[in-house]
Amino acid sequence: MSGQIPYLDVQCLTKSFGAQVLFDNISFSIAEGQKVGLIAKNGTGKSTLLSILTGKEAYDSGNIIYRRDLKVGFLEQSPVFNENDTVLDACFNHKGSDEALLRAKQILTRLKIRDLNQTIGELSGGQLKRVALANVLLTEPDLLILDEPTNHLDLDMIEWLEGYLNRGNKTLLMVTHDRFFLDRICSVILELDDKSIYTYRGNYAYYLEKRQERINNTRAEIQRANNLYRKELDWMRRMPQARGHKARYREDAFYELEKVAKRRIEERQVRLKSNNVYIGSKIFECQYVTKAWTPDNVILKDFYYNFARYEKMGIVGNNGTGKSTFIKLLLGLEHPDSGKFDIGDTVRFGYFSQEGLKFDEQQKVIDVITDIAEYINIGKGKHLSASQFLQYFLFTPEQQHNYVYKLSGGEKRKLYLCTVLMKDPNFLVLDEPTNDLDIQTLQILEEYLSDFPGCVIIVSHDRYFMDKVVDHLLVFKGGGEIKDFPGNYTQYREWSSMESSVTTAPKVKDEKKKEKSGNTSRQRMTFKEKYEFVQLEKDIMMLEEEQRKLEEDLCSGTLSVEELTEKSKRLPVLKDELDEKTMRWLELSELKM
Length: 593
Known about the structure:
19 helices; 20 strands; ATP-binding; P-loop_NTPase; ATP binding; nucleotide-binding; alpha/beta; 4 domains; Rossmann fold; globular; AAA+_ATPase
């Protein structure tokens, strides 16, 4: 890229709101073909920086230089359209060519916007963001600036967008908290931290490694400055006020040293582990639940599931397949058409919903939490105060005494999360908890949930987050079809691709070859055998329940002759099936998981 004029050159940019400085004297550039990810904590100015770069917001000082005649496309976090326009009008301010119209339909269909004559005013917030994304992509800009492009996209859409952005020599700058997305697309990471900007020339994994090196170096620099500062402070106290030229030079150096010595790195040194959570052995049983909004929109169809103690389950699937509805059925916020949820007596739900973000904006952050509890019991005689708990989730003492209305959207989401956790639940149900949270908060939440000694259900499109936390998936495929999978998201994708590309016959042959080669004494299950083993447990439980009901009905004396005949025929078939599955389960149980 040497010798070329960069697409964008930012020089010594400063922006403040009153006394709060967001960034001070920052510089960076973006060259043609670079894909740059911007990372920062909530409230430190990511979206403000993007608004400044696109001319939507003023700045205090510095220069923003674009290459001449460069076409820039900007996806805002909260896009605004004329609500009377149709979807197609929103994507074309003037009539386009037939080719452009076809391309618009293709991209909108990929983003699951199918009614192109629907007015903007009729769209949900998620649909509106997807129309805005389509609009930006259709303009084919030289430089794409994207603020949270994966919010409101399901997994299929995210994977399509990954492919789209990776094709060709596209240039882009984006803010995203989706670390899978960041890792697969970006070749440069910019980190906005402590009013400065740091450049890492690599993907997200490279950034993590180099960021830790930077923090370690800074910590060592502060330690050295502290050691020298104590000596210099002693000299300052002993020296008389009338100082010569050399002494004044040393005095100036002392004040510079003092600035370094008093720097603080906001890094948590401990993980928050709660030992105070108790949950009984009975959690919940989903007993043959059926739910449909219309005959064509089936959510669950005779669905059975027995949730295990300490289970951490992820729920994935495309938008509209019923993930949030399933959660609401479990919590009693919606009612099934048939079947029921049988919930254990000790279960105390903590529910983080997509609609639950409601605060008194005039309250202070600390008061929102102390209204719930003054402290949280973490077991073994230890307590955390409301302030300490907030600090763990990166609310500084200064931020805790801010009014809620001063918080950014991401900070409000984080505060809402704290209100859920502060109520001391033993079963967390989190519906899209990662939206708008910064990466540092996501890492803290991952640790918290991994250590959480209760049960967890998470609905999320954040693949990286799911891999870190969950050990089991329910995959909602639509039409009432649900895949029960014992593993995380990456394992499911591997299994899914393997299923579609490999036929059953060669697998049988491979197993026979292994037996012939004397490999029958292996001690560990394969990945597929683990899946089969867990599925067998579920099947056996369902068959035993069916057998129990059949035997009850046959002994009840209330059946008609036809019912009696039908159930009498089913019983021996059921017993054979149960015996077969039990034998296979016993074979597999001799191998180690």
